[in-house]
Amino acid sequence: MAERVLTRRELNRATLARQLLLERQRLAPAAVIECLVGMQAQWPPASYVGIWTRTTDFRRDWRAENGRVVPEPFAPLPRPAQRELADETERLEALLAD
After folding, report:
1. Beta 64-65 vs 68-69: how paired, if at all?
2. Is 28 helix (H, G, I), strand (E, B) or coil?
3. 5, 33, 40, 61: which is deepest, by most CB within 10 A?
4. Among 59, 37, 91, which Cα is nearest to 48's?
5. What does R_g of the chain's alpha carbons equal in angstroms?
6. Could you list the residue range(s) of the whole structural domain that residue 89 is in?
7. Which 3-state string (H, E, C) describes 38-77?
8. What is the pLDDT of residue 67?
9. Does residue 68 form part of some domain?
């Protein structure tokens, strides 16, 4: 069976669909960013426009702090996981220091 080659139009449409640009999706802003594997903007307000154009669920109270998405509600890591993460960080720092 011969492989089917996409036409230029089909390839362009597939690219737009993958970037969530063909139609707005019913996704939370954080889910949009996850689908896109992150979102970059040289000018901070541009990221809001980028998310707004891709989702029907964008609200004005959505926010980002320090360049990171702030999910609502935010749940901290449980204490054992915090300790495990701190221990692993120390091991990696020691490894990099050598």
Report:
1. antiparallel
2. coil
3. 33
4. 59
5. 20
6. 8-97
7. CCCCCCHHHHHHHHHCCECCCCCCCCEECCEECCCCCCCC
8. 58
9. yes
CA distance 15 to 21: 9
Task: Count CA within 13 A, CB hemisphere, residue 9.
Answer: 0
Whether residue 51 lies inside any domain: the answer is yes
pTM for the whole structure: 0.51
Say how many domains are in the chain: 1
CA 86/CA 93 separation, integer angstroms: 11
- Copy the structure tokens of residue 80: 């054992």
Look at the block and give the residue holding tokens 């089909």: 10
Q: Check residue 77 and give its pLDDT.
A: 79
Q: What is the pLDDT along the chain (98 residues), one digit of tens a residue?
A: 889 999 999 999 999 998 889 998 888 877 888 888 666 667 767 777 888 888 887 776 666 666 566 665 546 778 998 899 899 999 999 888 87
| DSSP 8-state code for residue 23 | S
Is residue 3 included in any domain, yes or no? no
